[in-house]
Amino acid sequence: MDHKDLIEDIARSAADTDLCRAVIRGAAPAFIDSWAGSNPFKRLVARFVSRSIIKSFTLKETRLAPPDHNNKVSNEARENFRRLIETVDFGELKEALDRSSAQSGPYIQMVNEELWSYPAKVVCILSMLPALSNTALRGVRETAAPLNRMAPDLLTDVVISLIRNVDTKEISGIVNELAELVRKIHTGSALIGEPGSPALPELFEKISSEITESIDLPLFIKASLMLGEIREQLDRAITGAFNSSPDLIKEKLKREFNKTASSAARIENTLDSLERGFSDNDLEALISGALAEIDFQELASTVSRFCEITNRIYDINPDIIKGLLSQFFSALDSHETAETASLFAADIAESVKPVAPVLLPPILKGIGDIISSARAENPEEMTEALDYLNQSLKGKVAGYE
Which residues of 255-285 are buried (b: 16+ CB within 10 A; e: fewer)? Predict the structure, then answer.
């Protein structure tokens, strides 16, 4: 054994003695605290390093015991963890973090200023990001490749085995706890706030107002429009790629029709569940309760306000809607549109014929009731309108004879 190995053995043996441990536990934190001084970042680092050293050199006394055979933590482990919680000054830790957060701005600014003093090095650092991304993507690909070399039944069996090992009770527990958390937050918001004015919406409104006041709104609106243009350009690029491949176009159209079919299937399944799972009384109570949640007065008020705004716009520019509709209909191919309309009309008429004897009478009676009621309320204008309709049906309207 040479001198180097001998010295290492002596140092290792000395470090393992209780005396050396006590000296290091007492001296190291003092030296580290002296090094940190009043700098908040150094003090934060020093605190964790000191505790790590103390923990390392009291390992024989504070080592956590593993759980016993009944999956219960020993009293010794619980006591050690309790001493750890009692020892850590969380208030001081929070204060240090708060100071660090408040004072981090100048340090971050300093780091950026020094980094950008060497633009080439900054560019070099940024150029590492694509390489790291490519490495990650390659790693994912190389990991997926062996799985794809497995037989379909074997791969499926592995996936099913993995899924079966998921503890569904734990998932249910998480869902229940999160649902209860949401319920309590919602209830607490109503309790803290004024009657009819929960606390959370007021807070969100205040935060939104503060953010809006600080945002450069013209620039924000312009950026939003630019993002819309970028999205449209991306859609056109994707559409162009699809157009270059008829197979892709077929798959895209098939997917859209499949979505429609899936939506129809979901509606059918929902109606089937309602029909099978509820009696007539339960179904009536369910639908009535759901409809009661809809504020039809508010809906009517919204429609009225929309009509009011539309009328105000008409007062300023009466031809705005007429101009837009004229542009739309003038751009239609009248021949193709008329042919499509006639085909649809013929198909609809032919399809409705079997139910027309039972469908048309109540509809026509309803229209008749509406006309009679309107005629009683406004006889002059309704008589004029009905005469005009009658003349139109006979082909005697001026200008159209």
Answer: eeeeeeeeeeeeeeeeeeeeeeeeeeeeeee
